[in-house]
Amino acid sequence: MTETTSPQSASAAPALDGGDTPLRVAVIVGSNREGRFGPIVAEWLLAHVRERSDFVVDVVDLAESELPTSLSFSPSAAASAELAKVTPKLAAADAFIVLTPEYNHSYPASLKALIDWHKDEWEAKPVAFVSYGGLSGGLRAVEHLRPVFAELHTVTIRDTVSFHNAGALFDVEGNHRDPSAADAAAKGMLDQLAWWGWALRGAKSVRPYGS
Ligand SMILES: Cc1cc2nc3c(=O)[nH]c(=O)nc-3n(C[C@H](O)[C@H](O)[C@H](O)COP(=O)(O)O)c2cc1C
């Protein structure tokens, strides 16, 4: 069967996004553990994001800030200084990729602190996940993050990239030993993130979220 689109219906489609500016995606490196493996996976992910023209990327590395676990409506000067390292990047983002390890069948406390210190910065934006860990590849961490991000009015992306027994998958230089399946998974996840990023940014340009 041949599918046809009339010129009339194509030209009638609304240009919701109002431009072709790339989506600003914040890659959140969730582990801040001493001796962490996270940067290896982060570099692999960043290489995939940076080769695309539909994204520009910011990195939010939780090892580079010390967010308190005690929340406050009037944070101390020290807490404000730490928040200033991350909050503007979250606010500016059109989309997020959360890179999470699995700790005790869930995600690390560093990520929960980042999430809970913020609210509006997450709203009506898409969130994708890349996970790693032992046998489960961090998938339980991702499934725990989905309802948390739903509470914050985000859209979580269905397809994830996960690395089971992550340490064995990369060589000493940080290259994936057998990258074809992971590369394909990254493309699928990033394509879905871009779709939702454009859709939500375009919709918000026409009508504020929740109005
Ligand atoms: C406190 C702790 C708990 C862990 N719990 C799990 C777990 O429940 N399931 C799993 O597959 N791996 C688990 N692991 C293995 C980690 O997912 C793996 O070591 C990963 O590389 C940690 O990420 P990081 O090195 O970037 O901190 C755990 C590791 C730590 C340190």
3D structure, described in words:
This protein is an alpha/beta fold and 211 residues long. The protein has a single domain (22-67, 80-204), classed as Rossmann fold (3-Layer(aba) Sandwich). 41% of the residues lie in helices and 16% in strands. It contains 7 helices and 6 strands; from the N terminus they run H-E-H-E-H-E-H-E-H-E-E-H-H. It has helices spanning 7-12, 38-50, 77-92, 109-116, 139-151, 166-169, 180-206, and strands at 23-29, 55-61, 95-101, 126-132, 155-156, 161-163. Strands 1, 2, 3, 4, 5 and 6 form a 6-stranded parallel β-sheet that branches. Strand 3, helix 4 (109-116) and strand 4 (126-132) form a beta-alpha-beta unit. The longest helix is centred in the C-terminal third of the chain and has 27 residues, at 180-206. It binds flavin mononucleotide. Residues 31, 33, 36-38, 101-105, 132-136, 166 line the site of flavin mononucleotide.
Q: Quickly count the helices.
A: 7
What proportion strand? 15-25%
Distance between the termini: 41 Å
Q: Which whole number gives the mean pLDDT?
A: 92
Just name the CATH architecture. Answer: 3-Layer(aba) Sandwich
Main sheet characteristics: 6 strands, parallel
State the share of residues found in helices, binned by percent: 40-55%
The CATH superfamily is Flavodoxin domain
Structure ligands: flavin mononucleotide
Shape: globular
- How many distinct domains? 1
Q: Over all CA atoms, what is the radius of gyration? A: 18 Å
Low-confidence stretches: 1-15
The fold-level CATH name is Rossmann fold
For the record, the CATH class is Alpha Beta
Number of separate strands: 6
Secondary-structure element series: HEHEHEHEHEEHH
Secondary structure category: alpha/beta
